């Protein structure tokens, strides 16, 4: 018969989460760094305000309590669903309170003062976002729930912006002064990123099929595309200015359709060139990994080479090809920022304007939507790749 002492000793000891220890350390560091940065105007150096000084008393203690609970939950090995819920709650508190901090620190009727998130806020966001990512990985959500969660987070951020809770933050003040320009550059950024990927897909997949079918061509094409990838993006943008300017000046009708040495055209051409290698290479790899048994079965049914390609090989290779497209899209969303250096537009306009004016909040106005767009594209395409892969395996 088990004694009380034996039963007590048989209970599992409190276990620590190894990644949670790192998350807790980052969160503690964030709690001891400035939560907000106050500036007398948009270009002067700011003064860091610790959490206790950046908010009114009740708000500050509520935030401290939420962070403390989040750190404790991060340290202990608990169910992933619990960790996910607590991490999202802490992030929600931090995001609401950074807006309250801006309102609290901005003097009344002062249109020059600026309040930005401080290093503490960014570290806390990173720590608990890492906790969310870890919990999601352990929960192994299927594609549609992941997309639904992304949509829910996007809706929550939209609600926060719509409510006016962030209106006193400096990045929103920069946006208010440039709202029409922001949406114009957003459209340009989307055109550059998605348009270059669409054109590269139309050209790259047939080129990949050619490389798969004709091996001598494969080495030459992939070597050339590898060389293109080694050229720095700024250099490639610059190299395209002279030839495209010549085409615009000497080819009838070229300038009429928008070809020029600076602007959107060289940016689109450069992004197209960068996009080809992953798409072509993944097309080749996907086709090479098609099971030989599937091809043998297709031959046994009397299919021609073209029929096998369209009905067997490409559908089975599609998840790998789509993975290449995902890589290219996320890459081009970031690279499109550089297009502003040659007049191509996009969110990079605000990044380089901010650098030139030493206005870091203007830099954030361009950087934050770029990062958010790349993250959303990665999540959605990852989910689509998984759905296609599962669908292919079940057929």
From TrEMBL:
Q: Where is the signal peptide?
A: none
Under CDD domains, the record lists:
TM_PBP2
Q: Where in the cell is it found?
A: Cell membrane
Originating species: Devosia nitrariae
Keywords from UniProt, A to Z, are: Membrane, Transmembrane, Transmembrane helix, Transport
Name the UniProt record assigns to this protein? ABC transporter permease
Tell me how this protein sits in the membrane. Multi-pass membrane protein
* Residue intervals of the ABC transmembrane type-1 domain: 186-381
As for family, the record states:
Belongs to the binding-protein-dependent transport system permease family.
Domain of life, per lineage? Bacteria
Q: Which residues cross the membrane?
A: 21-40, 60-79, 86-107, 119-136, 148-166, 186-212, 224-247, 267-287, 308-329, 335-355, 362-385
Q: Which InterPro entries does the protein's record reference? A: ABC_transp_perm/SBD, MetI-like, MetI-like_sf
